[in-house]
């Protein structure tokens, strides 16, 4: 069992920055993938970014490439999402998830943190 707790969301102006955190607890692991997803009002949940826990290889959705950066702190079992140059279309609930086995199935999810970007 893994528990994920997101934090760092808030209300910001377009062009501002936020840094989201996702702290994992309940177990430790040396492999797998951690990722960020988001769901805007009335929209389906979509992939934002992911990072391989052991290799640190990253993937990004095209719409956030160059603006968002995902990183991890292995010692703290924490993944971060640095969000720069925020746009109103980035407004969503952001969720952290973990794929423990590397099967491209997301095993555990956090409760989400709201990010709102005003024009």
Characterise this structure.
The chain is an all-beta fold and 119 residues long. It has no helices and 11 strands. The protein has strands at 3-7, 10-13, 18-25, 33-39, 46-52, 58-60, 68-73, 78-83, 92-99, 108-109, 113-118. Strands 2, 4, 5, 6, 9, 10 and 11 form a 7-stranded mixed beta sheet that branches. The chain is globular, with a radius of gyration of 13 Å. 31% of the residues are buried.
Which percent range describes the beta-strand content?
A: over 45%
Q: How many beta-strand runs?
A: 11
Shape: globular
N/C terminus separation: 40 Å
Radius of gyration: 13 Å
| Helix run count | 0
> Segments where pLDDT lies below 50 for 5+ residues?
none
Summed over residues and divided by their number, the pLDDT gives a mean of 94
The major beta sheet can be summarized as:
7 strands, mixed
Q: Could you estimate the helical fraction of the residues in percent?
A: under 10%
Structural class: mainly beta
Main attributes of the structure:
single chain, 119 residues, mainly beta, 7-stranded mixed β-sheet, 4-stranded antiparallel β-sheet, 11 strands, 0% helix
In terms of topology, how is this protein built?
Layout: E1 3-7, E2 10-13, E3 18-25, E4 33-39, E5 46-52, E6 58-60, E7 68-73, E8 78-83, E9 92-99, E10 108-109, E11 113-118
Parallel strand pairs: 2-11
Antiparallel strand pairs: 1-3, 3-8, 4-5, 4-9, 5-6, 7-8, 9-10, 9-11
């Amino acid at each position: 069992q893994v528990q994920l707790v997101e934090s760092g969301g808030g209300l910001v102006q377009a062009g501002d920055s936020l840094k989201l955190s996702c702290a994992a607890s309940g177990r430790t692991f040396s492999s797998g993938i951690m990722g960020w997803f988001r769901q805007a009002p009335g929209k389906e949940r979509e992939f934002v970014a992911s990072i391989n826990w052991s290799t640190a290889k990253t993937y990004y959705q095209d719409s956030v490439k160059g603006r968002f950066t995902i990183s991890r702190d292995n010692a703290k079992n924490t993944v971060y999402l640095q969000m720069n140059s925020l746009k109103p279309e980035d407004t969503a609930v952001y969720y952290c998830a973990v794929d423990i086995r590397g099967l491209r199935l997301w095993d555990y999810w956090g409760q989400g943190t709201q990010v709102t970007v005003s024009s």
